[in-house]
Amino acid sequence: MMLAPYACDPEQSRGRQFTEVAAPTRTVFQRDRDRIVHSTAFRRLVYKTQVFLNHEGDLFRTRLTHSLEVAQLGRSVARSLSLNEDLVEAIALAHDLGHTPFGHAGQDALNDCMRDQGGFEHNLQSLRVVDHLEESYPQFNGINLSFETREGILKHCSRGNAQAMEAREPGGIGRRFLDGTQPSLEAQLCNLADEIAYNAHDIDDGVRSGLITMDQLQEVALFEDFHYQVLQEFPDLGTAQNQRRLLFATIRRMLSAQVYDLIAVSQAALEAASPQSPDAVRQLPPLLAFGGEMRRQSAQLKQFLFGNLYRHPQVMQTTGLAKQVVRELFDAYMAAPRELPANFGVGIDEARGREALVASPARVVADYIAGMTDRFAAREHERLTGLRLLG
Ligand code: MG
Q1: What is the pTM of this model?
Q2: Interval between CA 22 and ligand 1 midpoint (Å)
Q3: In which domain, by residue range, is 37 found?
């Protein structure tokens, strides 16, 4: 792999929190990726909601397939820009590890439950999973990832949380939110790959589910231009039995257009700024970006999905039930901590009187709930309340 001077070089990594002997055949970032793939939290992604609840259909994206799509998109852009593919892959595969069951509904409900305890934020939780919650190694909690992978996972962070992190880890990954500097290009790329991936697959899942239609999508320029183009080239795809091919061909072109735009615009910005190291990148404004027109079109698409899919009455109905499940689970464990599994129950006793963001009893309960898959949360809720709300 030929790396550009602005790409993260595993030989120059700022290293891990706990020093380890280097692996004989793998770089630091390859090893990070392997640790992520072998983690418990990663396996659970397969049963976690992206937009549709896990039990609503077998063909919709889950957090796992979403993460794989982000990794694939990210790697292919990284190769074009001579960035570090392994680092991009590690960040992409880990970026959603902290998601609660039931997607954003679960996160909102848990955040409400934790309002007086520093809140709950899935992005911060992804970091918490790899730093603290995985239980695999005898010497430390978490999976002890490199600075660069952790930096990429922590996409956003409030000032308050950044200050707390800086106090625990001076000059660490919280620092850039206080200094207003950027993360590595590999991290910047993962954010954009995430956006490209979900915009495309949410259209796909939305149309397949019947909640949105291709007719409605005509108001979205980015979709409609390619929809028109595909039909001009392949008029047969206009027939009812070819709708799936038409949808896929349109989304494929739409996705490619965004990727090529991102590569071209970013390539130009990199040439103009010509940073000579990843640290030089961190001091500059964001260098990876869409062009102005693509940014507008992507924003329009996002707005469409927000209004027509994420807020669809049918989605909102399950959203309401999912929130109730999370809230009632939280209350049940707080009232009866003995209902927690042994390793978490012990955690609650140790957690009393400690910093709320790190280890209060409520935080222990939030960690346990956040780790649940959709179906486990629904079953556990039924066990504790006698109510069957979902599935
Ligand atoms: Mg994502």
Answers
A1: 0.95
A2: 30
A3: 11-314
